[in-house]
């Protein structure tokens, strides 16, 4: 069985000087320590020859100011990383270019990409920025969006990892990531399988379906998907949730008591060529905890 791990040896964090990005640095530093890999901090500066993109006419002096600000952002992020995971190797990289293509290139060699849930330039009230959504769809490694939670409690580190399982091979990469995440944290794994997501009149549905038989079949589907991973990670206690609900809604509800939700970048119902499915898109925007979006194994190999 493929284990779904990316071959990269770095956890890459996108840095833009925002508090959200610093929260992502803290998360990424802890994850790098858990996985025994290097932490890499990357900031992108959109500069084209003699001017800042979008600000025509600003020359070399302004470029130097922008470079200085970017270097200070990286230095501040490195300081936060050292506090979060003392002793871990930390790399810093300033790249001229737009954030999405810069981080997409980083994803070709990374173990995962970590981003804050909102950065500079974000629209007030919009939980997930365009960079996060685009990168979740295009990156060649898992992308983690770190949610800034209000009113954090002391038990946050003991909360479970949640993973969405749709019964297809596409969710294998998400399961691989989720089991490892739960194992390295020493927390339970909640495997969620929502087995009906079509709108139908309840009276008509009762006539058309033997719900007990359907539920039994869906429980078996989930058990089969989990079997191999449970053997590989015997230390992970798994709680199965098989529910008659819309997949996105079920995962968002579970996220209220979780520290991380893991989803595939596209699921069984996604259209061909659509890299970010409707479920992963909804969870990315509405989950109450951090979210990891994991591409299918066959896509990462091509």
Describe the structure.
It is a single chain. The protein is α/β, with parallel strands linked by helices and 302 residues long. The protein has ten helices and twelve strands. It has helices spanning 19-35, 60-84, 99-107, 130-138, 172-185, 202-208, 211-232, 247-255, 278-286, 297-301; strands spanning 10-14, 38-45, 47-48, 51-52, 90-96, 112-116, 143-146, 161-164, 189-194, 238-243, 260-264, 290-294. The strands form two sheets. It has a ten-stranded mixed beta sheet with strand order 5-2-1-6-7-12-11-8-9-10, with helices on both faces. It has a two-stranded antiparallel sheet with strand order 3-4. Helix 1 (19-35) packs across helix 2 (60-84), helix 5 crosses helix 7 (211-232) and helix 8 packs parallel to helix 9 (278-286). The relative contact order is 0.14. Mean pLDDT is 81; it is low at 1-5, 121-127 and 268-274.
Summarize the structure.
This protein is 42% helix and 20% strand. The chain is of the alpha/beta class and 302 residues long. The chain is elongated, with a radius of gyration of 20 Å.
